[in-house]
Amino acid sequence: MFNKLNFFVCTSENFEKADDEYGSSNITVLEGLEAVRKRPGMYIGNTGSVGLHHLIYEVVDNSIDEYLAGHGSKIDIVLHLDGSVTISDNARGIPVGKHPSGKSALEVVMTVLHAGGKFDNEVYKTSGGLHGVGASVVNALSTFCRVEVKKNGGVFEQEYKCGIPQYDVRKIGDTSGHGTSTTFKPDPTIFQETTEFSFDYLSARLRELAFLNKGICINLVDEVNDKSQEFKYDGGLISFVEYLNRSKVVIHNKPIYMFFEKEETVIEIALQWNDSYSESVYSYANNINTAEGGTHLTGLRGALTRVINQLASNDKAVQNLKEGLSPDDIREGLTGVVHVKLRDPQFEGQTKNKLANSRIRTLVESSLNEKLSDYFHENPDVAKKIISKIVDAARARIAARKAKELTRRKSALDLGGLPGKIADCQDRDPANCELFIVEGDSAGGSAKQGRDRKTQAVLPLKGKILNVEKATTDKMLSNQEIRLLVQALGTGIGRHDDDVDISKLRYNKIVIMTDADVDGAHIRTLFLTFFYRQMKEIIKRGHLYIAQPPLYRYKKNKVEHYLKDESALEKFLVETSMQEASISDANGSTIELSVVKNMLSCVERRNRITNILARRRSLVVINYLSGQLSLTPDIFYNKSDFEKFVDIFKMHILKYGHVFTKVDFDNEHNRYYASFDIQLSGKPYHFKLDFDFVSSPEFEELKKLSNQLETVFSLPLKYSHDKKTKVLGSWIELREFLLAEGRSGAYIQRYKGLGEMNAEQLWETTMQPSTRQFLQVTIEDAMAADDIFSMLMGDDVPPRKEFIESNALNVRNLDA
Q1: Where is this site: Interaction with DNA (predicted)?
Q2: How far apart are CA 458 and CA 435, in angstroms?
Q3: Residue 552 and residue 388: Cα distance in Å, rounded?
Q4: Where does 417-549+780-810 sit in CATH, by number?
Q5: Residues at the annotated binding site?
Q6: CA distance 84 to 182
């Protein structure tokens, strides 16, 4: 297809302007790429999900660095159906001129380790990339990578496979724009655990970046699941804290914001107290989330403790406290963000989880000491409210300690370390043991009878446990069900990680097992709230699971089956309908059942791709385009052929609705495209028919599947079983017929309650390790998790009402 493009000779004169302050001479080379594919963990942390997403972050970090240097305002991230991703910005564009090494600067950046402008302090004052290895490592760990640069009036590109250039950097068109677009597909031989990007996981990081770099606009689009989100916050850290507190009742209306610039270091801090019982303080260095804190967070906490203690020293309520204020009292209910920007940051560990620059602690602590004291003296009403909140926290801490001591004494005297209701397992090695927390005595009885007594323990809890989001610690510990659970687990509880001794956990897997109805969902949510607020370390270490009882029960004659979800049900119905049946083509030739199954799998895959592509273009459009053999990438380079195709396509759409089309020329890529505005059944669709869509892996696969389903066997098909026959015009019709045949005469129940199962059924479907389905509870987005628990389980009603109203139409399978 590229033989129709007009390429230009690559010279430094037509690639680079001499007065461009960010040019080829700014690229510094330190070493090569040889070891990246051999030991990828050294460069991205690991080859699991975290390392996979780090590939995107590295490319995005480059665009953020450009924004901080005063260039660009927008970053777009698009997740494609084939597992690839495209990241584009409107910054200056990677230099493409001749580098002193003899190659194009773009090729050097993409293929040589430690090559980039981040080692030149005149280009970037601060940088968040992974030690400068980002772009080249992303390229090396991808089966395919393509970079397109708009710079100095031209559009330039280069493609790579596993880090190896497929051709020299070349000019493919003209443009008045600027920026860089990188498309890559992670190598499955490197990322063997998964190559699937998580929209939620990415959203968490991109949201952070938008808050930390006020004014930048970041768009995330998931073409697979038809989701998108825009992140843009002009308030910076103030907006960040307001977002974190939006589902909480705040103590003072406006966040406290501090900005300092000392010794070539920028320090930003935003603080706001709320009426919750937990601390939510996040720390960053050069846009990097330092999840384990570091010297900047230590400095913040030190200053807070000193300033608040000085402020509260004359308060009568504080003076009446026998024990005084603790640092935890001061930080209870505090939401805050500290962000430092510095040259040459030092981190503990390759993954940059903890800032280690010792001077930063002194800078943060001294700066905040002075400014925060001044703020409280200038705003005495705010200071009074915060001190009152802290005094309440101190009183609650003292009461909670007494309640814990009482609970320990009762545990030792009355319960012998384990609650009497638990049916414990025989094995004493926690690594082999599982605890099933079961709703109610009925299901608890079945679980106790059906379990594997050697490794599975069962704890039935009565009714709904306390909502700990609204309860103080002493009230929580006085609740019998909570006490039973705490004693069974053995770790202790608390809102701080060091309150929970994970080494004393008695069970490797803690499984929440509730009914699949509304009450069961509520009880499950209460348990999740408890673990998130009081035993978060259990979630972080991967010990918490949710049992997945089968969703459907199928019964026909004396045959009974349990199916885990709708997909499993449909597969079972199709296979049941094919038993002892025969399928033949138009020539009367019988098709082997294994081949029929493969063809029906193609139907499922085709339907899935069609439905995804049709979300923005309609089924009418996709079904027509996927059947057109003349629609190839080459057609976009021939104006006459393309206009003829558009006219025929337009006539087809007019059979179903209204259409407006316009053919234009893409100067940047020297090819044509068409814009469509159509109205079908009252619904508008706006889309482009262009090279990118037709050459996309998803559309190419759709065309291949459609052709296979129509040409491999002569149609129509004939279904025969006993005396029943049915002629079907396509494989799609055959699949629909088999689904209906499977349902005929059967009783299919959407399953709800565990209590409806006897011990044997519960074991086979929900507890037996070889057949059961568990969901592991993880925290991909800690901020979103904190927000959702506060919103749904807290005292503030308006945010909860707004959430319910906004999501009401998204509810599926509502039990009413």
Answers
A1: 464, 467
A2: 6
A3: 54
A4: 3.40.50.670
A5: 439, 515, 517
A6: 10
666 part of the active site = no
Q: Is 392 a catalytic residue?
A: no
Residues of the chain with CATH 3.30.565.10: 2-231
- The structure's pTM equals 0.76
pLDDT of residue 773: 86
Report the alpha-carbon distance of residue 175 to residue 152 in Å, rounded.
8
CATH for the stretch 2-231: 3.30.565.10
Known active-site residue 519: yes
Binding site listing for Mg(2+): 439, 515, 517
pLDDT in tens, 473-489: 777 877 888 888 888 99
Catalytic residue among 174, 427, 519, 692: 519
Distance of CA 12 to the CA centre of its chain: 42
Which part of the chain has CATH 3.40.50.670?
417-549+780-810
Averaged confidence pLDDT in the chain: 85
Determine whether 439 is an active site residue. yes
Which candidate in 268, 329, 515, 690 is catalytic? Answer: 515
How many angstroms separate the CA atoms of 207 and 201, rounded?
Answer: 10
At 416, is the pLDDT very low, low, confident or very high (cuts 50, 70, 90)? very low
Beta-carbon contacts of 578 under 8 Å, excluding residues fewer than 6 positions away, are 593, 596, 597, 738
What is the full DSSP assignment across 223-242? TTTTEEEEE--TTTHHHHHH
| CA 710 from centre of chain | 38
* Strand order, beta sheet including 544-547: 456-461, 434-439, 509-513, 544-547, 774-776
d(CA 64, CA 73): 9
Range in 200-209, 690-699, 776-785 the model is least confident about: 776-785
Fold of domain 237-393: Ribosomal Protein S5; domain 2 (3.30.230)
